[in-house]
Design goal:
10-stranded mixed beta sheet; 25% strand; 5-stranded mixed beta sheet
Length: 447
């Protein structure tokens, strides 16, 4: 047998192996790819981790959430119906308050039940129970103090629940409103919008002597040009050129704790930060005694929205306002109707019953002075009753605390006008009508 040169044999072997290697490369799965069962197992593990992290439908304290230079406490409310990639609302309490106080004193948890977002309640441990909105550390991104701890809480939530980092919001009352201004200034890349009830501009409370209180600012005597106010915000994160959070501002004209001039100074600051005119694009009166101005846009998500409450003091927050916050945030898909004032609605109900069932006819009358555009009627069925059908509204759930929501043809109720709806229900002996009703969260007269 004639021996081939070694070089020829190697070339022949290589030629034979190349097609085999190519076929293997084409048919072999990528090393990082997951099979369907493996992907399902990973998602199941993530879901299990989320379930273990915080029990749903109850306020729960979370510890060891990350960097926390000022020893804040973290409380979390996760609804049973939390959505995939949920939004996060940071609800910040007032001086002398706490995270649980904010939970109990506002309705963000019940709104979370309806819309599926997560509510985060930071809680101060220092003796004053006021947030640090004055120290140099608090007024710059990553500088330390309370804002860093709150940012750690947000990071924990977004990791644990795969939360939507583009839908993180802040709202607060008094000290919490001041912190809302600070958070939006320090972390413009984290927050999409904020809502401040009875607050002051970013850096208005600034001090260098360790004091938590700035009497000049609280007294409404600290004023700047819009650009000067805007520069204070921009200086918290030098070099940042991305989008800035939208801001909603609430203030009472008779505020004797954080005086009313702070309302106008906040408007100057945030219109400058947003780069929009200080001349309102729209002005209206959504409720008696309220003046709402919108800047840079006329819709529900204008760059800046400001609500002035005539004759109202520092403690201005009231039931129904949180729904308006959600509209500004864009977390309420349809947006709430203008909230009727107490006594601005009336409901009458007539029941026709038989052995095991009943028919209820309900009339809703707008006794207020503004048109209701979109409504939700809330009532609690007596024990043993279950809705089996209805007209004029959609009814959920079928028993217990029920919400009747308008349908397409009857969502508007002009002042003095009425809408009639009704439902059938089964009962176990008690065929009475509900004892009380609310329209968009406000109690109605009955009779």
């Amino acid at each position: 047998m004639t021996r081939r040169p070694l070089r020829s044999m190697l070339l022949a072997l290589l030629a034979a192996l190349l097609p085999l290697l190519a076929a293997t490369a084409l048919t072999a799965p990528a090393a990082t790819a997951l099979t369907a069962p493996a992907a399902a197992a990973r998602e199941s593990a993530r879901e299990s981790a989320r379930e273990k992290a915080v029990p749903t439908a109850t306020l729960t304290e979370v510890t060891n959430f990350g960097t926390n230079p000022s020893n804040l406490r973290m409380y979390l409310y996760v609804p049973e119906s939390v959505t995939p990639n949920p939004a996060v609302v940071v609800a910040v309490h007032w001086c002398t308050g706490s995270g649980p106080d904010m939970y109990n004193g506002t309705e963000y948890d019940t709104l979370a039940d309806r819309y599926g977002f997560i509510v985060l309640y930071p809680s101060v441990t220092r003796s004053s129970k006021c947030f640090d909105v004055s120290s140099p550390q608090a007024l710059r991104r990553g500088g330390g103090s309370d804002p860093v701890g709150i940012k750690s809480m947000i990071d924990w939530v977004t990791r644990t629940y795969d939360a939507d980092t583009g839908r993180v919001f802040a709202t607060g009352i008094s000290s919490g409103a001041m912190m809302t201004n600070v958070l939006l200034g320090d972390y413009p890349d984290v927050f999409a919008a904020g809502a401040a009830f009875s607050g002051v501009p970013f850096a208005c409370f600034a001090t260098t002597d360790g004091s938590e209180w700035n009497s000049n600012c609280s007294g409404g005597t600290v004023t700047h040009t819009p650009k000067e106010w805007g520069d204070l915000v921009r200086g918290a994160y030098p070099g940042y050129s991305g989008p800035r959070p939208r801001m909603q501002i609430w203030h009472g004209t008779e505020d004797d704790v954080l005086r009313y001039p702070n309302f106008g100074e906040q408007i100057k600051q945030w219109t400058n930060v947003q780069g929009v005119s200080q001349t309102p694009a729209a002005t209206d009166t959504p409720q008696s005694g309220w003046t709402r101005t919108r800047y840079g846009g006329t819709g529900d998500q204008a760059p800046v929205e400001a609500v002035s409450l005539q004759g109202i003091g520092h403690n201005l927050y009231a039931q129904g306002m949180a729904s308006r916050v959600l509209t500004f945030f864009g977390l309420d898909k349809s947006g709430p109707a203008p909230q009727p004032q107490p006594g601005a609605c009336k409901v009458t109900a007539a029941v026709s019953a038989w052995n095991t069932g009943l028919t209820a006819s309900v009339t809703i009358t707008n006794t207020g002075t503004t048109t209701v555009n979109g409504w939700k009627l809330g009532f609690t069925l007596p024990a043993g009753q279950t809705v089996t059908g209805g007209w004029g509204a959609t009814y959920t759930p079928s028993s217990g605390a029920v919400t009747a929501t308008n349908v397409s043809y009857n969502g508007t109720i002009a002042p003095g006008a009425s809408v009639s709806i009704g439902y059938q229900a089964g009962h176990g002996g008690n065929s009475a009508a509900p004892a009380a009703y609310t329209l968009n969260g406000t109690a109605c007269a009955t009779g």
